[in-house]
């Protein structure tokens, strides 16, 4: 059965576009010689593109969500050893708040507002990642 996406093409194409930001944060980790850290954003890059290309509920969404959640837990743990603990967690908290707010609007069918807040999630968490990767020790 062919499923319809959960958003309009204009909306999910914006989210697909902002998913490319994980390439920036992953590349930044490589630039700062933090090769192990780069695995996480590059993995999210792959699953996010797979999902946001045509977002329907199913295994592609589940894989993306589980990987993002796992990465958030791993990086929160690693941030305890980082000199940029405050900045990483500040951007992650505000980005995570954008995620919660976005789903509030999604459930109420305000899909453009959802899209804007979800873009905020992508932007802010990638800034936070770059703070973590800048000086992880």
How would you characterize the overall build of this protein?
This protein has 137 residues and is mostly helical. It is 79% helix and 0% strand. It has helices at 9-19, 21-31, 35-52, 59-79, 85-107, 111-134. Helix 2 runs parallel beside helix 6 (111-134), helix 3 runs antiparallel to helix 4 (59-79) and helix 5 (85-107) runs antiparallel to helix 6. The longest helix has 24 residues, at 111-134. The model has no long low-confidence stretch (mean pLDDT 94).
Shape field: globular
The largest β sheet comes out as: none
Mean pLDDT: 94
Q: How far from one another are the termini?
A: 49 Å
Run of helices and strands:
HHHHHH
The helix content is: over 70%
Total beta strand runs: 0
- SS strand fraction: under 5%
From the structure above, extract its key features.
single chain; 137 residues; mainly alpha; 6 helices; 79% helix
Brief summary of the model shown:
The chain has 137 residues and is mainly α.
What topology emerges from the helices and strands here?
Blueprint: H1 9-19, H2 21-31, H3 35-52, H4 59-79, H5 85-107, H6 111-134
